[in-house]
Every structure is written in structure tokens, then in C-alpha cells.
Amino acid sequence: MNNAVSYRTRWADMDPNGHMRHSAYADYAADQRVALLAAWGYGAARFAQLRMGPILFREETKYLKEVNMGEEIRVDGQLVSAAPDGSRWTIVHTIYKADGRVAATVTVDGAWLDLDRRKLTVPPAELADAFNCLPHYVAPAG
User: Fold this and answer.
1) Which pLDDT tens digit goes with each residue over 22-81?
2) Is residue 140 situated within a structural domain?
3) Domain for residue 118, yes or no?
4) What is the CB-side half-sphere exposure of residue 24 using CA atoms within 13 A?
5) Which residue, 66, 85, 89, 128, has fewest beta-carbon neighbours within 10 Å?
6) What is the pTM for the complete model shown?
7) pLDDT value at position 142?
8) Is 38 inside any structural domain?
9) CB-based contact 111:87 (threshold 8 Å)
10) Where in the sequence is the domain holding 82, given as residue range(s)?
């Protein structure tokens, strides 16, 4: 399954040093996750109907190569792990430069929040199944 999304970096993504600001990497990773969920039929309207939504417990970014303004990047997501019922999950987003080099990785640990009870919940089975169909992350050697 190819879940990659391509973007062209914007002026608003840059820091005073002329390269992409740290939080923009997280923004692109989040946008790729939202696009993936929507492709599975879980856009904002569906989550509102279900009265649930994704939340993050941890987000960690590793920066490897500079990304500059106007550069094309590609972002994908791979599953590190997920609870059998889909209630918790870890995804690694890889941000690639146009030449295929890895610019950064963004690792997130997440779960699902019941918006009425404000407590963690289990997603519908079809959403949990979709997560398990994501490509599985294999850490690079060394």
C-alpha cells in the first residue's frame, strides 16, 4: 500500500536560518496521517459522527538532512506496532527529499479519544484492521 503524500514546502515552513523549521516536520507528518485516515473513510466528519478522534502521547523527530523553501518532499507512514484492538499505535513517518534521501523521521505514539467521556476508547474494527494493513516499519541497520 502506497500511502505517501507529496508536498512543496512553503515560506511559512521556514525558520530564520533558511531551512524548514522543526515544527513543520510534525505538521507534514500529521497531514499525511489525516490524509490516510480520510482515504480509509475516517475524515473529520466521520470522526465527529463517531464522537472520537486520534490523539498523540509522544512525538519525536530525528533530523537528518536540511529541507529548503520550495523543495518537494514526500511523506509516508509505516506501522511500528498496534494493540490487537487498535486502541494504541505507533507510526513512523519518513520525510524524503525529492532525490529520495531521508530528511527526517517523525515517530508518534497515539490512541483514540472518546470525545464525550474524554477517555481512551477502541476504534471501530475496520479502522483497527486498516492500521494493520499499513506497511510495517523496519529500523535501518546500524
Assistant:
1) 999 999 999 999 999 999 999 999 999 999 999 999 999 999 999 999 999 999 999 999
2) no
3) yes
4) 18
5) 85
6) 0.94
7) 64
8) yes
9) yes
10) 5-132
